[in-house]
Write a structure and sequence with these properties.
Elements (H helix, E strand, L loop, with lengths): L18 H16 L12 E2 L5 E7 L6 H8 L2 H4 L2 E7 L5 H7 L4 E4 L1 H9 L4 E9 L3 E6 H6 L8 H8 L3 E4 L2 H12 L9 E4 L3 H10 L4 E5 L2 H7 L3 E5 L9 H4 L1 E8 H6 L1 H20 L4 H10 L5 H8 L12 H14 L25
Parallel strand pairs: 2-3, 2-4, 7-8, 7-9
Antiparallel strand pairs: 1-2, 4-11, 5-11, 6-9, 6-10
Helix pairs in contact: 2-13, 2-14, 14-15
Length: about 375
């Protein structure tokens, strides 16, 4: 993961190198890349091969907020900008490290991940907002729902009261903090919950269906997928818990890059942001359209269309990738309120910019 991608040709090659050696090297490189390995024969700006598209590596995950990247790829927006994108699977813990090492050029990052990196002194900068709000869902087991008479229409105050005497799953300090904030806001002491630490949302799902835990919280589309399969009931979401809404929690996802990469490759950054902005604007205007829903279902490993349609309503999709101070304040208030960062964070103009947003996106 610590290697870089370089400009297209073979570094240090000479005219005397035989065609056979070149073919062998090309084959070895292709096999390495095909196996998901980044080779040291690549430059920090990405690789533009023979005047063709610029190849870049992008870190992204499997949450609903990663859809703008997938839509930009599937709709040809990256290609239109002359970019050839390869996705590298990252999460909140691996993403910042992958970006810092140069294994990826751009990272789709949550506010918590980005602010955690800043708190550690890692020189990263947010250059676009591609998601708003926190599309979280609390899903309870069918058994727990039946025992406590909970449904999708149960008032969240009643939900919180029931959760106060339960076994909850937590796959990270962040998700536990989000659940605790939900409970505290409704007068329930999170310390009364028996917490079970699990390594991932998938592990939470397995524990829920096996009866090891009563409920857990995570980002969509996992909660709604569980409900759709008849294995649980979603009892809280941003439509019912306003603290998770874009209006209260601010930004939900950013495009993040290293500062030194940005200084060396401003035009690539502009092209990348333009493609992502086109994707979020398209999503904003087509949330119920079959074209978008079928595309996203395919990109999200076959998650059912009804689940994706509902999940898309739980987040905000900006028509402009530009950021502003007021929304940043909401974001900081929300993330700092979780208490998961090593210190209370602020941001300055050194940490985010609209310079690479097209169509007069800001300063």
């Amino acid at each position: 993961m610590g290697h870089h991608i370089t400009d297209g040709g073979v570094v240090g090659s000479r005219a005397s190198v035989t065609r056979r050696r070149l073919r062998a090297l090309a084959l070895a490189t292709a096999l390495a890349l095909g196996g998901g390995t980044l080779t040291a024969a690549c430059g920090d700006s990405g690789s533009a091969q023979g005047g063709g598209p610029t190849a870049i590596m992008v870190g992204s995950g499997e949450s609903i907020f990663d859809l703008p990247m997938r839509v930009a790829q599937a709709k040809g927006y990256f290609q239109k900008q002359g970019l050839k994108v390869t996705f590298v699977s990252t999460n909140a813990s691996t993403g910042p490290a992958a970006l810092e090492s140069g294994s990826v050029h751009f990272l789709n990052s949550s506010p918590t991940g980005f602010l955690s990196a800043l708190a550690k002194g890692i020189p990263q900068v947010a250059i676009a907002a591609d998601g708003l709000g926190n599309p979280l869902g609390i899903v309870v087991s069918k058994k727990f729902a039946d025992a406590n008479k909970l449904s999708g229409s149960t008032p969240v105050e009643q939900v919180a009261k029931a959760l106060g005497n339960s076994i909850g799953g937590a796959s990270s300090a962040n998700t536990k903090a989000q659940a605790s904030m939900f409970l505290k806001a409704r007068g329930v002491d999170p310390a009364k919950v028996k917490w079970v630490s699990l390594p991932s949302p998938a592990a939470n799902k397995a524990a829920l269906t096996s009866g090891q835990i009563d409920w857990f919280i995570t980002s969509e589309p996992t909660p709604l997928s569980i409900e759709h399969a008849g294995e649980g009931v979603v009892v809280a979401d941003p439509l019912r818990a306003p603290e998770w809404s874009p209006e209260q929690s601010g930004y939900g996802e950013f495009v993040v890059v290293r500062k030194d990469y940005l200084e060396k490759n401003p035009e690539i950054a502009k092209k990348f942001v333009a493609a992502v902005q086109e994707a979020t604007a398209y999503m904003n205007g087509h949330l119920h359209d079959a074209d978008l829903l079928n595309l996203t279902s395919k990109e999200m490993s076959g998650i059912p269309v009804p689940v994706l349609e509902a999940s898309l309503q739980h987040a905000g999709w900006p028509t402009s990738a530009a950021m502003d101070d007021a929304t940043w304040k909401k974001t900081l208030d929300f993330v700092n309120g979780l208490g998961v960062l090593p210190k209370v964070m602020t941001v300055t103009s050194n940490d985010w910019t609209n310079k690479y947003v097209p169509s007069g996106g800001g300063a």
